[in-house]
Write a sequence for this structure.
């Protein structure tokens, strides 16, 4: 496996000896390592690195624990793959973490083999994530071209509503809806409804919710 | 005394007077009305609310009173709103509701300025709904009893006038009017109020009971009661309070019953209330609703005039009036002067004069006026005629008069007229020389011994008035000095027969040109009078001589009222001199004390007007020096032999000493009686034959309470010997003994007889002590007293029972007592100690030495040492557990306690104490200790169980680090070039992590293992820190913020480390579970150690949990008290026993900011303190 020399591993653990030992191990395998004693310390100095990176996160910590830090980072749209380590993990906890996008969940004490594999996976994911991120950035650039009315029509379209329904909901003519829809497709550079839906999904645009009948 | 007419008469009277004034001043008033602009009166609305229906007499009077007061106002005129609650006939809730609705409708938006509720129900209605209906209106109530008011909550908007029942006033009035009263009948009926009134009379009249016989008729049916009233004994008065319900339960109107009672009773009836007056009661101190109403009206007016309601107190002042019915006074022959001062007499029947006096006076006045006028007209004519007639008849009448007069009339002429300006002596000589009788009537002639006046004409003056009598010379000179005119001058004249007589002369002279020409005179023979006077003087002299030396204060008062004589002894008795009494005849009456003056006046009337002898009276006078003396006064009228009233002779005797002696005697009699009555012992006085003369209250009470003997059987007049005999016939042994004893005392064979005997009642065990003491003297007799000694007997029996019990208790408790006389080395043991030592009393050598022999050899030194300590320092109690060996070789454990007693010199003389066989107990204790240790261990294990997950984590941490470091070291070694520095660091870290996990495991093992507690000096903080280490991870697991504040300078503590850790562990795990079981934001747990006052080390654990239920705050340390699911409930109880063992304390509190805080304190001590 080739380790890109610029890959950085961030370790957040409240136990200094664990922190120190993990750092030493990862350094011995050639990664750059940065350690933090608590979630708060990490949040205060959120690293902004260009190269691939991942986060080794202890679940149980005073203050913000690992899972909470994961949530917080997602809210911040800070994208970095996470490998959780824990003194004793239970299955529901690990499922929760994985669902939220964690790469792996290791139970202490763990073997270096498992750790290094998880790190490798995480770094790989980081590269993909970065690409996706770039695409999303591009789509959002285009979405910005839409007028508010067009954006509104877009949310109706991706919800699967027919033009007729949309017109009724917005109290405009079906013809107007059609016209807007055409302009949205043109501006976003798509040809089909399926493409439009996929693009909206990538850009994280939420479809409009159906209103209540009364 | 005020004599009020009936109300109608009064009003009529006022009207009449007003009319007269109106007629006479009519024109003036008219002018006044035109001239004075009268201020218009401000209109005020008054709401009167009455408790009952419209026609209740008391209410009608109260309303009259209220209106009368309000009508007095100068500033206001009133609009009246009158409502009747009719509460006595309608009392259900729906009625009250509709009544309230009516009030809302009528007064909801009407401004009422004054609210006058009458009676309890009206006031109750006002307090309940006043805020709603009349929120601002001042409330002034009337005619409510104080105890009724107390039931209600009155705010400061309320004041008013109470009424009261004057129990003692009523009784005293009746007793004063009828001083010979012996029986008092009380009627109050069987209604609720009636019964409570009857109760009150029993209390208030208690002090009268020994003088008057009270008869209560409240429990009888109406018919029976009226029957009883018809046959009351003599000297009875009836007090009628009320009768709303009779003994049968029939209801009546109290004022109607008044008439029934008064008609039936053969004794005067006195009543409670004004409304009874006119229905047959004599009167009394009456509760006046009219007065109460009037007072409420006055108060209302004061409030409307701006006075502060809060300043007006609630009182019953002025609502009791002494009122009487004139007709009843007549019926019972009661004189008005016997009524209390200020009494009002109603229903007076007027005499013709009283009723029509104004007409009569008017008629007479007119008649007199006319008569006067006519007389004046006639007078003129008559006068003229009279003058003429007078002139004609004058001469003739003179002659007839002179000749027929029984008085001697004479005229003297002088041969030579005498110049009245000449010196007296000269004139005297000339008179003697020249005066002769010129004219004399027959009466004069007769008085000097002749039969006709003509026969003595020309006779010389001197012949009849001999100058040998100095008296005559004096009279003549006085005559001359008076220019020959004189009145009542005495002369001693010689009778023709040589008899000397005394005459009283009047003379009048005719003087012309300064010379006396002739003198007219009259004379009367007063010889007899003079003799009488002289005799009288002699008699009086004699009387005085006697009276002056009397010891009593004698006086003689003339019929006209002045003192003729007062004996000097009055000064000794009264301090005033005799002359003081003579100068001031009223002085005597003034010296009499005001309260006794009535006696004096009555006596005077009796004896003075009738001029008959009266009985002696006694009264007190105040001496001049202020001292008070008792006087016995006796008087007789004095008559002359021919029956003429000459005045009153009286004698005042100082009886102060006698009175004092009487009073003392009376008091001592009362005292003896009171003492007898107040004795708790039952006392009877027997005469010689054994008849009961008197008994005391206790005796009667006992007889009354005792079902066996009724008062008739052993009360006054009963032969007590017979009573005893009767009982002894029922084979009562003690009665026979008592009988013999009493007999022997009565017969004088024995000076005292005493007997203790049981007398059990069905419900109670009783004993009595009987004592018979004879009366000395001829009459003999004895006093028998029975004292209740049940308490003493019971105490004696109880003591016996207790002694038995004590012995039994010693046996059961295996506890004996001992007493060691150190001086004599005598050791006495209770039976139980012999039993414990397994020997009999005979075997025991009864010495200290023998006792020591029985002690287990290993404990002997200890025992000796402890005893020595106690003897050296008696404040040190002997308290020791040691083993003994019984003769059959068995080992027993005993607990010995004892105390040293010092003799007068402060030397240890005696030692007493107990000894208890505690073999079984000790064995049980050991078992219990073992169990306790097990339990304690179980508790520690279960506490650790809570922490398992956390502890696993804590062990995993160093393991993880060790593993990673080892793998890193290998990699660094494999690297080219080798990074030795990194390898070295890695190995260093491995070592410290290895140690860390080792320590962890060690601590866990320590806590988990079974052990023998061992006290040693430990570092308190360090001990606590180990627990914190074990707990840290679990706290994190449960998201609890665990903080610690450990005092840096805590000296080493002498304690068992594991036990301290167990306490900390328990407190911390409890707190952890308390917080994490709840939905608490920011759960916190703080552990701190303190060093307080340089003597106590304190561990406290506070949490931000829900706290402890206050009711459980003390019980949580009890075993099996748990709210935790799955908890054993022994943790805190073990903590408490640990605290106890360390001489420390454990307690819990709730923090004011929420959550609980537990404290565990240890006294700072060293091994030496153990």
């Amino acid at each position: 496996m080739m380790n890109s020399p610029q890959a950085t591993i961030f370790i957040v653990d409240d136990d200094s000896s664990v922190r120190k030992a993990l750092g030493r191990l990862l350094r011995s395998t050639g990664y750059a390592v940065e350690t933090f004693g608590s979630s708060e310390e990490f949040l205060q100095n959120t690293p902004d690195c260009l190269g691939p990176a991942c986060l080794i996160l202890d679940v149980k910590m005073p203050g913000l624990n690992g899972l909470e830090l994961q949530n917080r980072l997602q809210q911040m749209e800070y994208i970095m793959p996470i490998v959780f380590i824990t003194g004793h993990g239970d299955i529901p906890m690990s499922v929760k973490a994985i669902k939220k996008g964690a790469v792996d969940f290791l139970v202490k004490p763990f073997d270096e083999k498992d750790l290094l594999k998880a790190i490798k996976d995480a770094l790989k994911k980081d590269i993909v994530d970065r690409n996706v991120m770039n695409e999303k950035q591009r789509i959002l650039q285009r979405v910005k071209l839409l007028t508010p009315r067009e954006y509104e029509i877009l949310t109706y379209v991706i919800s699967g509503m027919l033009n007729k329904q949309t017109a009724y909901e917005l109290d405009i003519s079906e013809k107007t809806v059609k016209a807007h829809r055409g302009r949205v497709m043109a501006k976003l550079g798509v040809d089909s409804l399926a493409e439009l839906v996929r693009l909206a999904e990538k850009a994280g645009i939420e479809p409009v919710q159906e209103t209540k009948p009364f | 005394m005020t004599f009020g007419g009936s109300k109608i008469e009064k009003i009529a009277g006022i009207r009449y007077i007003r009319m007269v004034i109106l007629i006479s001043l009519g024109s003036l008033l008219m002018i006044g009305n035109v001239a004075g602009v009268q201020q218009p009166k401000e209109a005020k609305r008054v709401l009167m609310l009455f408790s009952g229906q419209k026609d209740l007499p008391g209410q009608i009077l109260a309303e009259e009173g209220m209106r009368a007061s309000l009508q007095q106002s100068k500033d206001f005129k009133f609009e009246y709103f009158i409502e009747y609650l009719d509460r006595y006939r309608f009392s259900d809730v729906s009625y009250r509701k509709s009544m309230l609705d009516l009030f809302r409708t009528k007064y909801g938006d009407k401004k009422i300025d004054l609210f006058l509720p009458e009676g309890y129900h009206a006031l109750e209605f006002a307090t309940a709904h006043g805020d709603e209906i009349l929120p601002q209106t001042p409330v002034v109530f009337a005619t409510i009893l104080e105890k009724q008011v107390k039931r209600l909550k009155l705010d400061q908007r309320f004041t008013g006038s109470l009424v009261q029942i004057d129990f003692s006033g009523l009784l005293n009035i009746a007793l004063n009017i009828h001083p010979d009263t012996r029986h008092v009948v009380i009627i109050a009926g069987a209604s609720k109020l009636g019964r409570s009134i009857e109760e009150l009379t029993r209390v208030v009249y208690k002090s009268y009971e020994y003088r008057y016989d009270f008869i209560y008729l409240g429990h009888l049916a109406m018919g029976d009661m009226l029957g009883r009233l018809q046959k009351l004994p003599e000297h009875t008065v009836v007090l009628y309070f009320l009768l709303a319900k009779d003994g049968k339960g029939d209801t009546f109107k109290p004022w109607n019953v008044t008439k029934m009672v008064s008609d039936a009773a053969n004794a005067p009836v006195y009543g409670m209330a004004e409304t009874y007056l006119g229905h047959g009661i004599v009167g009394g101190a009456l509760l006046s609703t009219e007065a109460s109403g009037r007072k409420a009206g006055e108060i209302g007016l004061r409030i409307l005039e701006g006075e502060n309601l809060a300043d007006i107190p609630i009182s019953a002042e002025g609502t009791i009036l002494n009122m009487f019915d004139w007709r009843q006074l007549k019926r019972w022959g009661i004189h008005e002067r016997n009524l209390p001062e200020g009494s009002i007499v109603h229903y007076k029947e007027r005499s013709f004069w009283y009723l029509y006096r104004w007409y009569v006076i008017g008629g007479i006045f007119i008649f007199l006026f006319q008569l006067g006028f006519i007389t004046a007209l006639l007078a003129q004519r008559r006068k003229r005629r009279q003058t003429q007639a007078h002139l004609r008849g004058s001469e003739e009448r003179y002659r007839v008069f002179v000749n027929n007069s029984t008085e001697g009339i004479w005229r003297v002429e002088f041969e030579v007229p005498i110049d009245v300006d000449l010196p007296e002596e000269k004139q005297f000589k000339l008179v003697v020389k020249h005066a002769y009788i010129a004219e004399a009537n027959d009466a004069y002639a007769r008085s000097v011994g002749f039969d006709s006046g003509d026969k003595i004409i020309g006779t010389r003056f001197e012949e009849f008035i001999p100058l040998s009598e100095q008296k005559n010379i004096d009279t003549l000179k006085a005559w001359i000095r008076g220019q020959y005119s004189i009145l009542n001058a005495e002369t001693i004249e010689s009778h023709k027969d040589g008899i000397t007589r005394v005459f009283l002369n009047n003379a009048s002279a005719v003087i012309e040109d300064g010379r006396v020409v002739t003198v007219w005179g009259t004379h009367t023979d007063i010889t007899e009078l003079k003799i009488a006077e002289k005799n009288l003087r002699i008699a009086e002299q004699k009387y005085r001589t006697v009276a002056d030396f009397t010891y009593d204060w004698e006086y003689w008062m003339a019929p006209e009222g002045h003192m003729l004589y007062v004996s000097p002894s009055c000064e000794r008795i009264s301090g005033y001199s005799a002359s003081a009494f003579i100068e001031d005849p009223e002085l005597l009456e003034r010296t009499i004390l005001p309260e006794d003056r009535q006696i004096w006046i009555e006596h005077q009337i009796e004896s003075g007007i009738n001029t008959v002898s009266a009985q002696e009276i006694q009264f007190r006078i105040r001496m001049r020096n202020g001292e008070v003396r008792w006087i016995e006064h006796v008087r007789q009228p004095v008559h002359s032999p021919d029956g003429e009233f000459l005045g009153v002779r009286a004698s005042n005797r100082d009886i102060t000493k006698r009175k004092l002696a009487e009073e003392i005697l009376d008091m001592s009699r009362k005292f003896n009686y009171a003492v007898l009555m107040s004795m708790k012992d039952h006392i009877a006085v027997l005469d010689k034959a054994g008849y009961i003369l008197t008994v005391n209250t206790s005796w009667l009470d006992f007889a009354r309470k005792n079902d066996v003997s009724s008062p008739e059987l052993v009360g006054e007049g009963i032969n007590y010997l017979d009573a005893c005999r009767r009982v002894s016939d029922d084979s009562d042994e003690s009665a026979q003994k008592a009988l013999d004893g009493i007999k022997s005392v009565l017969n004088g064979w024995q000076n005292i007889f005493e007997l203790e005997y049981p007398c059990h009642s069905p419900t109670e065990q009783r004993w009595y002590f009987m004592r018979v003491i004879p009366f000395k003297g001829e009459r003999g007799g004895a006093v028998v007293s029975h004292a209740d000694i049940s308490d003493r007997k019971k105490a004696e029996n109880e003591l016996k029972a207790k002694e038995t019990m004590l012995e039994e208790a010693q046996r059961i408790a295996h506890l004996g007592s001992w007493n060691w006389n150190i001086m004599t080395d005598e050791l006495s043991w209770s039976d139980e100690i012999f039993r414990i030592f397994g020997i009999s009393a005979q075997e025991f050598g009864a010495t200290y030495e023998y006792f020591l022999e029985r002690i287990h050899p290993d404990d002997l030194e200890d025992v000796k040492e402890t005893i020595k300590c106690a003897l050296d320092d008696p404040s040190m109690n002997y308290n020791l557990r040691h083993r003994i060996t019984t003769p059959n070789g068995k080992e027993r454990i005993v607990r010995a306690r004892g105390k040293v007693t010092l003799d007068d010199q402060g030397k240890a003389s005696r030692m007493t104490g107990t000894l208890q066989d505690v073999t079984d107990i000790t064995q049980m204790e050991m078992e219990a200790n073992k169990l306790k240790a097990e339990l304690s261990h179980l508790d520690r294990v279960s506490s650790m169980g809570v922490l398992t997950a956390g502890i696993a984590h804590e062990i995993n941490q160093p393991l993880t680090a060790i593993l990673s470091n080892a793998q890193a070291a290998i990699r660094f070694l494999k690297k080219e070039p080798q990074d030795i520095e990194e390898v070295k660091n890695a190995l260093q870290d491995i070592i410290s992590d290895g140690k860390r996990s080792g320590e962890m495991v060690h601590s866990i093992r320590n806590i988990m293992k079974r052990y023998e507690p061992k006290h040693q000096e430990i570092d308190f903080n360090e001990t606590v820190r180990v627990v914190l280490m074990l707990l840290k991870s679990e706290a994190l697991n449960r998201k609890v913020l665990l903080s610690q504040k450990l005092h840096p300078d805590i000296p080493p503590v002498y304690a068992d480390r594991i036990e301290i850790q167990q306490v900390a562990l328990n407190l911390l795990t409890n707190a952890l579970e308390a917080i994490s079981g709840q939905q608490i934001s920011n759960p916190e747990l703080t552990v701190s150690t303190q060093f307080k006052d340089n003597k106590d080390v304190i561990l406290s654990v506070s949490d931000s949990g829900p706290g402890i239920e206050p009711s459980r705050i003390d019980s949580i340390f009890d075993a099996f008290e748990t709210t935790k699911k799955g908890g054993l409930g022994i943790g805190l109880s073990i903590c408490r026993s640990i605290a106890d063992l360390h001489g420390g304390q454990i307690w819990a509190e709730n923090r004011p900011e929420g959550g609980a805080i537990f404290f565990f304190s240890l006294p700072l001590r060293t091994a030496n303190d153990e």
In short: Chain B touches chain A at residues 949, 952-954, 956-965, 967-968, 971-972, 975, 979, 982, 985-986, 989, 992-993, 996, 1033, 1036-1037, 1039, 1041 (CB under 8 Å).
